[in-house]
Amino acid sequence: MKKGITVFLSFAIVFLFSVQVNACTLFAATGDEWVQGGGSLIAKNRDEKPSKQYVKVVSPDNGYRYFGLFVDSNNGELRGGINEKGLVVICSSASTLAADVKTEDQKNRFRSDYGVTDEYIISKCATVKDALALDKSIWAGAQNIMLADKDEIACVEIGPDGSIAVKETMNGTLNHTNHYVYEDMVWANVKPYPESVTRYERSGQLLAETSHPFIMEDFIAFCNDKNAGVHDSIYRDGENNSSQTLATMVYDLPKIGTASVYMKVRENPEDKGKEKVYRYSLDEIFKK
Asked: What's the whole-model pTM score?
């Protein structure tokens, strides 16, 4: 991983400009050493230009029910959620692709023959192991998908050619942003994105240097970190119509007992500073 980051940083320095693209920060921890009481924690900040979004429960005809954050465009696609079995699926787009590849990828909207990748996984899989055992053709779209259940966490980098690189652990941490960091996938970093590297390194620093085992409130605090200013921080205030943090989601998946969900969501573009906060147990979500 260090080799991959070094290659990307060197590549980014060559280019003296940055790009405004969609951005997200993902991180997770699992195991007794890292999460108080055991189990897992996983979080995502969704960063994009202001747009309408909402939370809801989906009850598929053939699959597990799930609760998540959805965007108003692109047929209401999922941007992160948890299913009734306690599996969390969150994602970030790969924003370092060549322009023509990125345009084509956006047209496909991360779809395989099975449908939108993260929506298929969250409706069909009960555990991380279930997801990682799926046919490789399901992993579509140039993106990074992070998974968690009460026993383990994993991150899958999906390349523009459909290749994948996977990292998983039952005792440790993972973090990701919007460029490829795994050694087998760094070749796909074509356009520089220094701000993604800044968020990646900061989230890794917070995980490594903050006293642990962690609780949910620690992850909420990480999501609110603003140490690199309005454009480059994990929590991005942004300006005008620039990319900014529109939602925070944190999931606590204990070894024993029901999972807990925290979501802070700007439902309408004009609601900056008036975000809604949702706190539910998994039991409450699916009993209502």
From this structure: 0.90
Burial (0-12, 13-18, 19+ Cβ within 10 Å), 34: buried
66-104 b/e (C-beta count within 10 Å ≥ 16 → b): bbbbbbeeeeebbbbbbbbbbbbbbbbbbbbbeeebbee
Report the relative pairing of strands 260-265 and 244-253 from DSSP bridges: antiparallel
Distance CA(165)–CA(182), nearest Å, equals 7
| Tokens (6 digits) for 44 | 């995502």
- pLDDT 10s digit of each residue in the chain, 288 long? 444 444 444 333 333 333 345 689 999 999 999 999 999 999 999 999 999 999 999 999 999 999 999 998 766 789 999 999 999 999 999 999 877 665 555 555 556 666 789 999 999 999 999 999 999 999 998 999 999 999 999 999 999 999 999 999 999 999 999 999 999 999 999 998 999 999 999 999 999 999 999 999 999 999 999 999 999 999 999 988 889 999 999 999 999 999 999 999 999 999 999 999 999 999 999 986
Q: Is 110 left (phi over 0), alpha (psi -120 to 50) or beta?
A: left
For residues 28, 173, 189, 90, the Cα torsion angle rounded to the nearest 10 degrees is -20
| Cα–Cα distance measured from residue 143 to residue 148, given in angstroms and rounded to the nearest whole number | 17
Strand, coil or helix: 122:
helix
| Measured distance CA(119)–CA(111) in Å, rounded | 10
